[in-house]
Structure formats: C-alpha cells, structure tokens
Amino acid sequence: MKRRTFLSGMALLPGTLMSAPVPAWAQSGKKTFKGTLVVAASLDPKNFNTNYDTFGGANYINFNIMSKLVKYDHVKNEIFPDLATSWEIAPDLKTYTFKLRPGVKWHDGKPFTSADVKWTIEDIVREGDRAATYKFVSDIERVETPDDLTAVLRLARPNGIIIQNFASYNGFNILPKHLYEGSSVRDNPANLKPVGTGPFRFVEYVVGSHVLLEPNPNYYGEGPYLERLAFQILPNLSTALMALEAGQVGYVTASPPFADAARLKSVKGIAIDSTPSTIVMWFGFNFDKPMWRDIRLRRAVSMAINRDELVGKLYLNLVKPAWGHFTSAVPWANDATARQPEFNLAEAERLLDEAGYKKGADGIRMTVQMIVFPTNIWGSVEQAQMVKQQLSAVGIRVDVKVVEFALRVEEINKRGFDFVHGGGTRGPDPSEMIDYYESKSSRNNMKYSNPKVDELFIAGRASVDQGERTKIYSEIQKILAADQPMVPMVEYSYLRPYRQEYRGFSWHPEAAGKASEHMYNLVRLA
After folding, report:
1. How many Cβ atoms sit within 10 Å of the Cβ of residue 227?
2. Is residue 193 one of the residues assigned to a domain?
3. 186-210: per-residue pLDDT in tens?
4. Which stretch is the leader sequence (predicted)?
C-alpha cells in the first residue's frame, strides 16, 4: 500500500511540497506572512476555470486565486466590493456602471483593467448555454470600457439583481484577457496554472495529491497572513479527520459525520463550528424516461420519503427537513405553503397502483437506478442508502450507483438513471433556483421543463422590488410543488472542523466584509 505523505500546518513534512521554498519577499516587511495552513480537500479540482464548466473541487481553491467584481459576505449576509469599488444602476435597470479598483495587477505582473472585465463577460455570453455561468450574464448585450477603470454593462432587458448574481458562490471569476483572448478557453494552459488577482498565487498542482499557493504581496485587500496555503487531496473523510487530529492538516473542507461531532470536539486542539447554509440536498427524476413524466409516480416516490427519519438518523436533528423547493434560510423569498406532500405510505402505494405499477409476487413493483456523487457536503451516499431503504417499503427497489464527482457529467449524459442525487446553494437570492429548474440550465440534470417557470425566472430578475419578487418566486415554488420534478430532503448546515491555532476563517466574525466562502486571506496562526 502506497504511503500518503501529509502537509503539516506547523511545518512541511517530507513529501512533494518540500521543494517549494518560502519566497524571499515574504520576509521583506511589506506584509507579514507566518505559518502554513494545510486544507484537507476531498475533491480534486481537475480544472481551475469554472466560468465555463463546473468542477466541484475548484471553488475551494479558486476563491483564493481569482477575484470577482463583488463578493458575498457569509457573516453579515451582505455584498461587498472586490475588483469593483462602487457601482451605479440606471433607473430602467438596463445599465450598470462599475468603478474598478486602481493599481491591481495580475499575478504575472500585468495590470488589471476594464478590458479584462469586458473580455470575461462577453466571452461567457459568446459561449451561451454551454457556459456554466451564462445565466448570470445572459441579459448583457455588450460591455463598454470608457477608460481602464470603468466598465459599463448594457443589458437587453431589465435586470434588478445582477449584483447579487455576480456575488453568487457560483458566479464567474474575472479572467486575464492577455492569457485567454484568441485561445480555446477550455484548452487554455491557464486553466491548470491559473493567474488571478486574489490573495494567493498559484505555485503547483499535482493531480491526486495537492495544490500549493503562496501569498500575493500586492493583494489589494486585507492579508494574506500565511507563508503558504496548501490543499491536500484526501478523498477519504476518515483519513482527513485523522490527519486533522494528528495536526497534519489545519482544516477539513468536508463536513464530518454528524454522529462524530461530539467526539471530535473533545479532542484537544480541535474546534467544530456549525454554520447554516442555503444548501438543499435532493434527488430528481429523469424526465427523458417517459415513466417519470407521470406525476402520480413522482408524488408517490415523494410520499414514501420520511424526511424526519432521515434528519434524525443521519443528522441527529442538527439540520432541517426540506419541505419546499427553496430554503427557509431566506424567509422573505420562501413560501412555506408550497410544501412537499407529507409522508404517507398508504397513499404512495395507492398512486403506484393507479399508475399501473402493481407489486409482483416478490413484492417488487419496479427496479430503478439512483446515481450519487460524494461531495464536501456530508451525507450524499448515506442519504441515497436511506432512500433505498424507505422506497423498498412501497415495493420500489433502488440500485444505488456511487460515481466519482469528476465523472458526474459523463454519467448524467448517459441518461440511464432514474434518480440523480444532488445538493447545492439555493440562495441567498432566490434566482439561484434557476440552476436546477430552468429548461436550458446546464445543471438541470433532470431535463425538467416548464415554460411558465422559465418566464417567471425572467420576471423575477427584472425587478428590484422585494415585495414583487416575493410574489413571483412564491408562484414558482407553487408550480414546482405541483410538478414535483425533484424530492428536496434536507436543508443543510455545515460542520466545520479545524485546528484551534488558526483564526480568521470566512465564517468567523473578523471575516465580515473581508472574505467570502472558502477564502483564507484572513487565516492566521492564533
């Protein structure tokens, strides 16, 4: 068995990263850099350019290398400036003028200008639906650059929430025009050796092993304070937690099993913080299969899911059952009346019979396939196994197929599945739901399509009036509750395990207005 070497938060142990010296400028006095943070990451990034395709492990690293126009503060639940220092919105919601931060340089020394903003946005628009972040820029006709520090967005239709969309967790990063223009964006070498303007600079990526970053001494924000930031790829959560206990890593991105939280908290030197999220975990139906276009069948499956049992057994009631298609974490946009059907085995069986799926002599009505992809959100595989157990009570046999996250697109494109398990953010703005339900969305794995829902999503982003938007998203949720394209199961909360010698993580109070999710520019040795 090959011995795995770890990177240590206290010092670098023998391994592939020993060759990376502390840069000379780290001791120059310009900024104070001290210590190494090793983050245990469960997913290989595969590719650092998430503007065009989604790579589950990349955002955890990207946020430290790349920058956006604006970012979202998860402590105050507010948007704060990043590359843009201010912005003006025209009354007709069709012109946005961004003033950009002066003196910013790319990590290769080239100046950042409005030309980078223009190229980034217009190239995503050019890619259209093929780009994962197209939904955030689909209303933009063109970008004007009257000077190096001004970018003017001209929209084809009113959009009152473009700032919120730009700050989204899955929003696009500003890319360096001088490295991407004229190239095939998906094949560009910078996708694996990223150049950004963020607090850390890329040093190396060894597939299946680690990503190493060093501090950017010219970063325009506060920090960074570390000599090195390293991401150790540890797909096995048990291995990652053992490394945390041994002091070989300082933070684990994946939530531990909720049943292990009490024991971990008792380990000297380890803290576990619990933070709410806008993440909903779910499984959806494959609408390419005619059988799943029958609403009776979809409602029967939903009625056979006991969310309270799932939340109690898997999460010790530390998360909430998901009763709607949005999230209760954003009360103004959540319609609590647009609920999933209650747990009711008798009614589920009646609907299955009515739909023509009678039990055979062995008690089985049908055999279906559920594909699931382990992620940093704990419980994906465990939820799938519980769904299998619960649906067996109504005669549905579920074959659970666990697939590496990096292969999810390939597996989904085969269209052989019946259920696909997923999880992801639904907020803070309700327009984030478009990822899962809009007909042309690249993340609509179910191929669910309702023209009325598509129209309402357009209407929802065409207003800045919260009362009006509440009504629009309430209508969307009511349609989704009636259509039942997926079965929401859990409103997730993070458990974040880390070594107590580190402070300044993105959920800590001192990060308010200075860091977004998974940014480590404020992390320092306590």
Report:
1. 18
2. no
3. 999 999 999 999 999 999 999 999 9
4. 1-26
Q: Could you say which of 134, 161, 188 is where a domain stops?
A: 188
The DSSP symbol for 62 reads H
Considering only CA atoms, which of 255, 452, 300 is closest in space to residue 390?
300
Domain containing residue 487? 276-494
Residue 432 has pLDDT above 80, yes or no: yes
For the chain, give the number of residues: 526
Cis peptide preceding 81, ω within 30 of 0: no
- pLDDT (tens digit, 9 = 90+) per residue, 1-48? 333 333 333 332 323 333 333 444 344 456 789 999 999 998 899 899
Q: Do 23 and 75 sit in the same domain of this protein? A: no
Structure tokens at 261: 């939280």
Place of tokens 């025009």: 177
Residue type present at position 300:
A
Q: Say if residue 76 is in the same domain as residue 59.
A: no
**Contact (CB, 8 A) for 444 and 433:** no
Residue spans of beta strands (DSSP E) within 180-236 = 200-206, 210-215, 228-233
Among 154, 188, 222, the domain boundary falls at 188
Integer Cα distance of 485 and 436 in angstroms: 10
Distance CA 171, CA 122 (A): 15
Mean pLDDT of 371-395: 93
Q: Please name which of 277, 231, 251, 236 lies closest in space to residue 423, comparing C-alpha atoms.
A: 277
Burial class (CB in 10 A: 0-12, 13-18, 19+), 71: buried
- The total number of structural domains that make up the chain: 3
Do 235 and 373 sit in the same domain of this protein? no
Evaluate whether residue 389 is within a structural domain: yes
Q: H or E stretch including 453?
A: helix 451-460
Say yes or no: 346 and 476 in one domain.
yes
Strand bridging mode 396-402 / 366-372: parallel
